[in-house]
Write a structure and sequence with these properties.
With 373 residues, the chain is mainly β. The chain contains 2 helices and 34 strands. It has a 4-stranded antiparallel sheet. It is globular, with a radius of gyration of 21 Å.
Length: 373
């Protein structure tokens, strides 16, 4: 009996999900321009115009050149690293129960401020730093309150607000304040302006916010546990395409991509499906990418007209894109950079010879280990 080699078997998207097809299934790292390593699980991966920033569960914060992959600097604080913001030559990072300010060029720690509870989000603009922290109650297995902080760039506390919900999205608003997507009990969203009380708004749905992103034209996109997507900004409204909790969302030039707990992905006018839960999504040069995890296997899916699927050896929870670059951060501490021109060239190569691709991947892995040693 004729048998198809395992390395030739993958599946292809259509709008109803996957359908069987015999094509190659290369590893994600076979498309990478370079791979770098953290000391522990990646908890943050962010691209700026010229640099890659990544943070770890152990508290390592690294900055690499996005062009060459060279390490610019490395800093260590009490982890895990939660979030970063970049403003006026400084990197502001929330980690464990603190907010830290670093010099963006050298990585020198400038100041630290302790927050109440565990730190969550940070945003910064024009010398003003906003941060959030939350308190988790083990007895009820939920968050019981959160604090919103406003500092100046020297670390002086200017204001603080305490609320009874944890924010699941924290974005800068054009009026100089912040917008927060809320969980229970109130749900909806808060708008906080300097010198004012927090203002609460309700959505058409009372479903808790689970994630959010900044969309095009100043919109805020907020995903809900019932699968709906709320838009706040120039075209406020609510849409529902998939009845499954929104796990991740990303804005695109034409709209957005949303990933869901049941493996559904809303993208470019239709619903596609992957195995497992969608952990992260991003857009690279007009093509959507998604990572998913089924409890034992990690997959990365290219959501283009000729959809492809790639294997990876660890769960990928973090993705970010900027211009022609896309980065991934995984649970083994790997930070993987893809560049659109390199990806296009490698996808156009003949992938029918898996043994040759395996040898190329093994060579790339050895070269990566030599560079990192």
């Amino acid at each position: 009996m004729f048998s198809v080699p395992l390395w030739l078997i993958t599946r292809k998207f259509d709008n109803r999900g996957f359908r069987g097809r015999v094509v190659s299934k290369p590893s994600l790292e076979s498309l990478a321009s370079f791979v770098r390593d953290l000391d522990s699980k990646c908890t943050l991966a962010r691209l700026s115009e010229n640099h890659i920033f990544a943070g770890s569960h152990g508290g390592e914060l690294c900055c690499w050149s996005a062009e060459s992959g060279d390490l610019r600097w490395r800093a260590e604080v009490s982890g895990p690293i939660s979030d970063i913001a970049i403003d006026a030559g400084r990197i502001y990072a929330t980690a464990s129960a603190s907010l830290h300010a670093f010099d963006a060029e050298s990585g020198q720690l400038l100041w630290s401020r302790e927050l109440e509870g565990g730190s969550d989000f940070v945003q910064a603009w024009s010398g003003v730093v906003w941060a959030s922290s939350s308190v988790y109650e083990l007895e009820i297995d939920d968050f019981i309150e959160a604090t919103i902080w406003r500092f100046d760039d020297s670390g002086e506390q200017l204001e603080r607000w305490t609320i009874n919900e944890r924010p699941w999205h924290f974005g800068l608003h054009e009026d100089g304040g912040v917008l927060l997507g809320l969980g229970r009990p109130r749900c909806g969203f808060l708008r906080i302006r300097p010198g004012e009380k927090a203002e609460h708004f309700e959505f058409a749905t009372d479903s808790p916010v689970t994630c959010g992103a900044c969309g095009s034209a100043g919109r805020f996109l907020l995903g809900h546990s019932d699968g709906s997507i709320s838009s706040v900004g120039t075209d406020e409204g609510i849409e529902q395409y998939v009845e499954s909790l929104v796990t991740t969302i990303a804005g695109t030039d034409s709209g957005f991509i949303s990933g869901h707990e049941d493996g559904s992905i809303w993208f470019d006018g239709g619903v596609r499906n992957v195995d497992g839960t969608v952990d992260a999504i991003a857009d690279l040069s007009g093509d959507g990418w998604a990572s998913s995890w089924d409890g034992s296997e990690s997959r990365v899916s290219l959501l283009a007209a000729e959809a492809r699927e790639f294997s990876h050896d660890a769960r990928i929870r973090h993705m970010d894109s900027r211009q022609n670059r896309l980065i991934f951060g995984d649970d083994l501490g790997k930070v993987i950079l893809l560049e659109s021109a390199v990806v296009k060239r490698r996808l156009e190569e003949d992938l029918s010879s898996a043994p040759e691709n395996d040898r190329n991947q093994a060579l790339r892995e050895r070269l990566r280990m030599l560079r990192n040693s």
